[in-house]
Each structure stands twice: as C-alpha cells, then as structure tokens.
C-alpha cells in the first residue's frame, strides 16, 4: 500500500505570506480544502516538499457581493457558498452547483476555487463559471493578475498558474437584468459523482431578443470547453425552439470526447446535445 511521503506544512496568515512560502520550495502545493490534494498525495499522483494551508487567510475564505459582482475566496467551502443569501439570490445556478459537488462532508471542505485549480475535464463548477464570464484572480512573486476562467485550465490536471502563483479568488460579474443560468450534468448512477457530460449555460434576454449567451461543456474535451459558436448563433435573435436546436447542435459538434470506463465517445457526444438543449430551454424559456 502506498504511503504519503512526508512534507513540511505552513499555515499562511496573509496572501503575501503564502507567496513567500510558495517561493521557498520548488515543489510547494496549496491546501485550500484538501479534498483533491490529500487524495493525490496519498496515491502518489502528486508529491510536495511543502504544503501551504491558505484557509486562515480571510481573503481566501470570503464570499463578498458588491455593486460589481461576487467574489468567492479560493478556499470558501461549497457548503457556505450554497447557503449564502447573495449567491442564492443573484446566482442561483451557482448555489445549485456548490450543493452538487460531493456529499455533505466533502462540501464542508471542498471549494469552487479548488474545483477550478484541479483542472479536471469533468469539473462541475467550471462550465458554469465560464458561462457566467468569471475571472480568476491570482497572486504570485510578480504581483496579482486576472485570468478568464475559460483560459485557466490548459490540460487535464494542469492550470495556467505560473510557478509561485496561487488562486486568491474568483470574480463573477453581477448579472444583467434578464439573465438566467443553468448547469446540467449526466451521471449513470448517484454513486458515480463524475459527470459523463455536463453543460453550463448563461443567457440574457431583453425585449424579446437574446443579448448575451455563453455555453461551456464538461467531460467531453481535455479541459472544460467554452463553445463560442453558441453565443454567435444566439445573440441578436428571438428565442425559439428551432434556434435552441441549432445552438444545441453546435455544442454537440464542438465536443471532443474520448471513450473510457464511464461511457463511449459517441454516447457522450449525444448527451452533450441533449443536455445543451435542456439547459438552453431552461434559460431561454
């Protein structure tokens, strides 16, 4: 049986403290909730000389709403996100996704920031974040910068963070009036929590016309996949069943799935079309 290799542990008290700690070792890892990292260290999939715990940094656990939008600290637990009044009022689809990730025990530790940083193609939160035009704010030795969430995951298990950088929070702009969002996924049974396919959608309808539409897919490409063609087909049009079918077909065509133990590629591609049609129908009426 594999044993976790020993590592040094530091509990950072500020963003600058965490940046210094991460810069002190070549192989340092950030611990936010630990629901992915601890499993990976135990299994030998990842190694670390140093683990930097960021849960004691107030900025990393904050859930804050202002006139511009919502900031989710990278270590804010899913259970708190799902229960937050501002999230439930202004971003109900996000509250639903936070309540979807794992069971109650996992939700008490797991974070949407961690779901993003883990960069799994099947990550449930990421397609919805992309649909909501979210941006990742990161800190590192060269200061702070922002990355559009659709550009954050660059390969399975690999993200766009540079050496010494870590995710501070995720910013989601305040939705315009008339905006609705939805995330749907398909799992063959409740015991299997990894999606065979998932779809995140957001759309704004003003005076009977679609002024904004974004759709992203999970589990059908090496990374969560932003399908820009859907927005191009929908924006400026009046919602209709035929238009939804056209957009769902574009999403299905964009999928690049593989066959694995959970589902064959053709089945995943078919499910993408079904879920896209349902999600678009939900947000467009």
List the helices and strands and how they pair.
Blueprint: E1 8-11, H1 15-23, E2 28-31, H2 37-43, E3 50-53, H3 58-61, E4 63-65, E5 69-73, H4 78-83, H5 85-90, H6 92-98, H7 104-107, H8 112-117, H9 125-131, E6 135-140, E7 143-148, E8 153-155, E9 158-159, E10 166-173, E11 179-186, E12 197-206, E13 209-218, E14 225-226, H10 228-234, H11 241-254, H12 265-284
Parallel strand pairs: 1-3, 2-3
Antiparallel strand pairs: 4-5, 5-10, 6-7, 6-10, 8-9, 11-12, 12-13, 13-14
Helix pairs in contact: 10-11, 11-12
State the main characteristics:
285 residues; alpha+beta; Uridine Diphospho-n-acetylenolpyruvylglucosamine Reductase, domain 2; Uridine Diphospho-n-acetylenolpyruvylglucosamine Reductase, domain 3; Enolase-like, domain 1; five-stranded antiparallel beta sheet; four-stranded antiparallel beta sheet; 12 helices; 14 strands; globular
Can you give a write-up of this model?
The protein folds into three domains: 8-53, Uridine Diphospho-n-acetylenolpyruvylglucosamine Reductase, domain 2 (2-Layer Sandwich), CATH 3.30.43; 59-173, Uridine Diphospho-n-acetylenolpyruvylglucosamine Reductase, domain 3 (2-Layer Sandwich), CATH 3.30.465; 181-284, CO dehydrogenase flavoprotein, C-terminal domain (Enolase-like, domain 1, 2-Layer Sandwich), CATH 3.30.390. With 285 residues, the protein is of the alpha+beta class. The N and C termini lie far apart (53 Å). Helix 10 packs antiparallel against helix 11. It is built from twelve helices and 14 strands. Strands 4-5-10-6-7 form a five-stranded antiparallel β-sheet. The chain has a four-stranded antiparallel β-sheet with strand order 11-12-13-14, sandwiched between helices.
């Amino acid at each position: 049986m594999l044993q976790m290799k020993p590592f040094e542990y530091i509990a950072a008290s500020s963003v600058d403290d965490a940046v210094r700690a991460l810069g002190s070792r070549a192989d340092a890892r950030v611990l936010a909730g630990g629901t992915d990292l601890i499993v990976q260290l135990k299994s030998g999939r990842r190694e670390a000389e140093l683990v930097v715990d960021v849960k004691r940094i107030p900025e990393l656990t904050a859930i804050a709403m202002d006139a511009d939008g919502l900031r989710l600290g990278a270590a804010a637990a899913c259970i708190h996100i799902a229960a937050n009044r501002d999230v439930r009022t202004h971003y109900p689809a996000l509250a639903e996704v936070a309540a979807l990730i794992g069971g109650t025990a996992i939700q008490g530790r797991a974070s949407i920031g961690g779901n993003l940083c883990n960069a799994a193609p099947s990550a449930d939160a990421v397609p919805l974040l992309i649909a909501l035009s979210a941006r990742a704010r990161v800190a590192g030795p060269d200061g702070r910068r922002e990355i559009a969430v659709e550009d954050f995951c660059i390969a399975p298990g690999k993200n766009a963070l540079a050496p010494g950088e870590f995710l501070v929070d995720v910013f989601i702009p305040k939705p315009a009036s008339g905006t609705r969002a939805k995330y749907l996924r398909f799992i063959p049974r409740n015991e299997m929590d990894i999606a065979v396919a998932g779809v995140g959608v957001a759309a704004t309808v003003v005076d009977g016309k679609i002024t904004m539409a974004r759709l992203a897919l999970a589990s059908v490409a090496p990374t969560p996949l932003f399908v820009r063609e859907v927005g191009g087909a929908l924006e400026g049009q009046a919602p209709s069943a035929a238009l939804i079918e056209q957009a769902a077909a574009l999403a299905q065509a964009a999928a690049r799935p593989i066959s694995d133990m959970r589902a064959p590629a053709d089945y995943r591609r078919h499910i993408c079309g079904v879920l896209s049609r349902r999600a678009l129908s939900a947000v467009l009426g």
